[in-house]
Amino acid sequence: MERVVKFLKEAETYYLATVDKDQPRVRPFGTVNVFNGKLYIQTGKVKDVSKQIHANPKFELCAFKNGEWLRVSGKLKEDDSREARQAMLDAYPSLQGMYSADDGNTEVFFIEDAVATFSSFTKAPETVKF
């Protein structure tokens, strides 16, 4: 998991795919944080992505840097604890102008059953699970 977190933070932007009924939806994300040994992402409850995750928690994300890309799939599970929300906001102070741990909108999800594959055109893919 540490290698995945390092890659995502260095890439700065990753693209999160969810399902909206029968239509895939992809959008840029930038939040990634480890809390209590789990990998978390953050969004707002008012956003379509939140509704899509609650309806179908399966996701895939992809990031690219320096000729290598990472794909991660699994399920996203909401952690409704204030501590998890605050940990994310502490890791990303720039979000604190838009979100707070107690605003009723900030939402964090951790990844379950993760399968992460590191790929490039110059070497064989490498898969890790966490």
Report a brief summary of the structure.
By secondary structure, the protein is α+β, with helices and mostly antiparallel strands. The chain is built from 3 helices and 8 strands, in the order αββββαββαββ.
Description:
It is globular and about 45 Å long. It has 130 residues and is an alpha+beta fold. The protein has three helices and eight strands, in the order αββββαββαββ. The N and C termini lie close together (6 Å). Strands 1, 2, 3, 4, 5, 6, 7 and 8 form an eight-stranded antiparallel beta sheet that branches.
What's the structural blueprint in terms of helices and strands?
Layout (H helix, E strand, L loop, with lengths): L1 H10 L2 E7 L2 E7 L3 E3 L2 E7 L3 H8 L2 E8 L2 E12 L2 H10 L14 E15 L5 E4 L1
Antiparallel strand pairs: 1-2, 1-5, 3-4, 4-7, 5-6, 6-7, 7-8
CATH superfamily: Electron Transport, Fmn-binding Protein, Chain A
**Beta-sheet strand percentage?**
over 45%
Radius of gyration: 14 Å
Can you tell me the CATH class?
Mainly Beta
What is the CATH-assigned architecture? Roll
* Structural shape: globular
Mean pLDDT: 98
What is the CA–CA distance across the termini?
6 Å
Question: Helical stretch count?
Answer: 3
Unreliable spans: none
Number of strands: 8
Series of H and E elements: HEEEEHEEHEE
Multimerization status: single chain
- Structural class by secondary-structure content: alpha+beta
